[in-house]
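Input (structure):
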């Protein structure tokens, strides 16, 4: 598995003791305040949560074998093949003239790069061609690669572990984006970096969501906090309280999928965020939005809406193995540059990997 987490020294948090175990001292400066009108939720326990580990024990996952890395890159390239073909064929035997720029503009727009990013790239490319006196089509293609890498590199950011105890992650996204599956994959990644995990089934809106998350919990051997029905914010609060009592490293909270136009449901997400702040002063530490890579410019609209509502800290782009065009990352970088932590190209655990701008552009413009 790829090593993609960057660690900072952990700040030790005082242990918070669950009611059913013997009392332990709690530091007076960080009391756990109960949330009014929130009743405890029964935990659906699939396995015992591992005790918190010392900082010295948290070591990077082994570097991927060359064949594993090659397999990942080949799957990424295959997922972006349609866009890659439409872009790269433009430069075969092409003359550097207005016709080439017009065709490139159309190709970028078709690839979901959006108007703003497309015009930015074209203007920068024309300037680069003139300043560097480029005369060959392959030189222009190489210049476009450089510009794309420069545009996307600010989105490349590692997810930091060990900074908070526990680290509270809120996961959002519309139905069908692969949110719950992504949570399961991320939980496995966390475990490979020696992090104990608790999952919270905060998607009480979709009937099968709780069961789906429980399956991932059982598969990964982690606890899932759930309620048969009730307030998703209460589930989130109880999950954080449980993680603090058990000294768990990471809490990941699933939320109900919804469209940004469903304003009353977006308000529910804001409530969950507020309640997490009551459960732990600094929470949530990460607010991730899971996006289906096939949704094109609609993905950009989702980023804007969820960022306005929740102040996103990162994105996960899924399903880049299908008909995804890939250009939406350029649109996001230019319009709403929220970091892209991970991209996914399939259903397997290893198919979710950290975003790397160089690798992505290489797959797009090989």
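Output (sequence):
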């Amino acid at each position: 598995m790829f090593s993609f987490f960057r660690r900072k020294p952990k700040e030790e948090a005082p242990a918070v003791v669950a009611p059913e175990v013997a009392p332990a001292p709690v530091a007076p400066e960080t009391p756990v305040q109960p949330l009014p009108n929130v009743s405890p939720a029964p935990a659906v326990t699939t396995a015992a949560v591992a005790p918190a580990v010392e900082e010295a024990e948290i070591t990077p996952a082994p570097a991927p074998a060359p064949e594993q890395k090659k397999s990942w890159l080949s799957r990424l390239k295959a997922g972006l093949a349609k866009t890659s073909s439409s872009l790269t064929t433009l430069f075969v035997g092409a003359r550097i003239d207005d016709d080439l720029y017009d065709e490139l503009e159309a190709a970028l727009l078709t690839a979901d790069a959006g108007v703003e990013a497309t015009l930015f790239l074209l203007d920068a490319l024309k300037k680069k061609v003139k300043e560097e006196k480029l005369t060959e089509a392959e030189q222009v293609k190489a210049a476009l690669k450089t510009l794309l890498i420069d545009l996307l590199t600010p989105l490349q950011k590692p997810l930091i572990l060990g900074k908070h105890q526990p680290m509270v992650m809120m996961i959002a996204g519309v139905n069908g984006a692969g949110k719950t599956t992504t949570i399961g994959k991320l939980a496995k990644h966390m475990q490979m970096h020696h992090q104990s995990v608790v999952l919270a089934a905060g998607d009480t809106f979709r009937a099968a969501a709780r069961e789906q998350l429980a399956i991932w919990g059982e598969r990964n051997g982690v606890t899932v906090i759930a309620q048969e029905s009730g307030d998703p914010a209460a589930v989130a609060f109880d999950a954080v309280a449980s993680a603090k009592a058990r000294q768990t490293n990471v809490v990941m909270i699933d939320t109900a999928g919804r469209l940004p136009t469903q304003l009353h449901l977006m308000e529910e997400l804001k409530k969950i965020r507020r309640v997490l702040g009551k459960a732990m002063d600094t929470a949530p530490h990460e607010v991730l939005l899971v996006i289906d890579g096939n949704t094109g410019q609609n993905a950009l609209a989702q980023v804007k809406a969820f960022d306005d509502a929740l102040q996103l800290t990162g994105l996960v782009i899924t399903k880049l193995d299908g008909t995804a065009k890939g250009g939406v990352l350029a649109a996001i970088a230019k319009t709403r540059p929220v970091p892209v932590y991970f991209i996914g190209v399939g259903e397997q655990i290893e198919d979710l990997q950290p975003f790397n701008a160089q690798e992505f552009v290489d797959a797009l413009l090989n």
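Notes: Residues 70-155 form a domain with the Four Helix Bundle (Hemerythrin (Met), subunit A) fold (CATH 1.20.120.140). The radius of gyration is 22 Å.
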